[in-house]
Amino acid sequence: MSKEITSRAADYSQWYNDIVIKADLAEHSAVRGCMVIKPNGYAIWEKMQAVLDKMFKDTGHSNAYFPLFIPKSFFSKEASHVEGFATECAVVTHYRLKNDGNGNIVVDETAKLEEELIVRPTSETIIWNTYKGWIQSYRDLPILINQWANVVRWEMRTRLFLRTAEFLWQEGHTAHATAQEAIEETERMLHIYADFAENWLAVPVIRGRKSPNERFAGALDTYCIEALMQDGKALQAGTSHFLGQNFAKAFDVKFTGKDGKLDYVWASSWGVSTRLMGALIMAHSDDSGLIIPPKLAPIQVVIVPIYKGEEDLAKITAYVNELTMRLKGFGVSVKYDDRDTQRPGFKFADYELKGVPVRIAIGGRDLENKTVEVARRDTKVKQTVPQEGLDIYIIKLLEDIQTSMFNKALAYRDEHITEANSYDEFKQLLDEKAGFISAHWDGTPETEQKIKEETKATIRCIPLDNKLEDGVCIYSGKASTQRVLFARAY
Amino acid sequence: MSKEITSRAADYSQWYNDIVIKADLAEHSAVRGCMVIKPNGYAIWEKMQAVLDKMFKDTGHSNAYFPLFIPKSFFSKEASHVEGFATECAVVTHYRLKNDGNGNIVVDETAKLEEELIVRPTSETIIWNTYKGWIQSYRDLPILINQWANVVRWEMRTRLFLRTAEFLWQEGHTAHATAQEAIEETERMLHIYADFAENWLAVPVIRGRKSPNERFAGALDTYCIEALMQDGKALQAGTSHFLGQNFAKAFDVKFTGKDGKLDYVWASSWGVSTRLMGALIMAHSDDSGLIIPPKLAPIQVVIVPIYKGEEDLAKITAYVNELTMRLKGFGVSVKYDDRDTQRPGFKFADYELKGVPVRIAIGGRDLENKTVEVARRDTKVKQTVPQEGLDIYIIKLLEDIQTSMFNKALAYRDEHITEANSYDEFKQLLDEKAGFISAHWDGTPETEQKIKEETKATIRCIPLDNKLEDGVCIYSGKASTQRVLFARAY
């Protein structure tokens, strides 16, 4: 297979696919819309999971596991929820196959379920049905639970990591005695997602609220973090929902308060998914391949020996072993690639393609000079570095790469937030510059829908730190009190 | 809810259910056969996952993720495989619901799948279909991949953790250039499972091979670890399969060897599941509740203050904080329960029920005497222990509990391996003593089947360390060269 990657300039979409496939991150499976996450991709996802899981636990959440299947009737209980998910769900109708006598395996029609089961697209309904049994009094609250799981949404157009029929995610589901507590939780988790995106993924995000059109089906308010990809399109990287008492009412979950009064329970839910892999790839990578932020890189440093004979290699290996031990002592993950079946040039290109943040090459002359060659993946800058103090140098370099990657993405993002004051300007910006367009909107779903139909741009969010500013809607000309961020999005 | 637990003597099965429910480990969901794993239960499963995952990675395996759904046609490709799983699988036939116009949510018959999808009961077929694209040459081998996933088998009789329609597990799927390598891998993973069972779960296991009747559907050889529960019934705690070239042939996966010749790839697969939770509970717990081996306990030490006033509590808390810091420094997980809403007696009973290995109680008099009260969960022995050196005392105590639990289970297990030399003796032992019965068997599936039908006992395994010994089959009287282990089993 050719390792050549289509350039971003030539075809951004193909560039993305090339990286996913050629860096061995994922591939399409034989099942429509479902992907295989390959070891290279899964290792990054595991690092993400570990970091997020710790963040959740540090804020008092526990993990649990709820059923994959949801009875169809549960779905119908929250009207807007079912409307949001019913048209794209996998339905289990039978529980047995049989041999038809001619050697064909067919569905056994005698094994039809009385009630169809839906493969969960999200778990609010099955979880709130469960919480009903767990909550009687304010003493049982709050419930702060997270689940790592697979979910299925029957998307018609799929793209690896970005939009797949089955994907992996975490979904938090919390229950509270007051609206205020539930809102605080919703916001707390949004900030955790933003912290993760910025400080681990190295992807700057805008924290905001969705317009009513873009809200989660069943939520009173949806908060989101929005990132910008290198082609100027936005990507929603995580959402946190204030569900009010909608699901408590749908599943009749009440509690007795301190005052002895019965009330419905307040809820939040929040999730991020393997879509974050798409954000990581598209925010940072270049025409040579993937670039992984050091804090999420399964291998942070790869060491390649350049040698002529066995004796040469033995000397290099002795030094590398000692260096590796020191680096591992600092928690750095190191791979020494001394395979004799591949040449150094091949290895260099391969680790570049796969995004390993730092490559160290060491040859006979380096040993004599007590130096090594250090190449950083993000800028491709190579330097000859003394062996003395190399461990500290590498640790600082990893930190520097992490920071540089974030700053580069931030600069790009900030350059791509542009104000538009007329619909013509808006459309021109969308086509010529893309990115986020900050514009006045009259606050109606109708206007939002019209703009979407005409330009494919949606309101990504109303930023949390928005300033109030009098203006007129770019589309309707009606009065507006604040700008919102539009963009074309993944 | 009453925290009273049915005694093992009164009703072992109810005792088990009581512990699962009352220690908040899991509960039945609204979906037939599917369970909700509650935070207390899931926290133990997470510890198991972490330990196993490290063992897999230390032996060269990587994690990946394959689709939840398997096209029906894949199933049919390996004849014995489909026969083994077809009668108990969830079948997805549609991908959309709709509103029927009368407010009812119904399956949209226009959204019928061309080919039905099976919710994976195990992933050999989808994985080997994928491996076909990954393997061309011996250089692509071995492939050593593990997946953490949910699977579904439509069991008609379910029991929490032991047998559920959906369960969580890991499944390893490896591909090799030679039969020998695949067999070595199969055996390596069996020994890893045994190591985990004995040194972490504190459950002694017998390593053996299954008789042909009990083999995995599609395997040439199934290895297993068999544990004994306190009621004398056996529990299969893990299996590792040598699949030969069956799946490679079914999915046409060939490779070019070093000699340039084409051959089918050799395979192994191996798995353990949330069933291990059942083993943990049934092997160790008592009539007061759960007993968790310290190495898998989410909370290893709980500290309960016994105080009269705020001043008392402040002094105790100051000491506890300092003790906690020292214990955490040694990697011990500690919980300080200073809730003022519950009395110490309630807390003691609750942590006993939930199986926390060590409880420390500390009151005003303890502070004066520079002592604490330490209670170990397994033996319920309480001791007054000096504060000086308490951290080291606790660490040794946790190790001692882990060892004692294993030794106790081992002694019980070893007392319950009994030889039977006639069918009458066999049946009497089964009814009166239970446990493993070591008996001669003529090696035929027919005899095994007859014994199963008449006694409900199955051949649990042919131990790996079996001695050859001439004898006659207890059932048929035919010649036999070795004893095998029978038992009634979960």
TrEMBL record, chains A, B:
It comes from the Bacteria. Residues 27-293 form the Aminoacyl-transfer RNA synthetases class-II family profile domain. It is found in: Cytoplasm. The keyword Ligase applies. GO terms for molecular function: proline-tRNA ligase activity. The keyword Ligase applies. This is Proline--tRNA ligase. It comes from Pedobacter punctiformis.
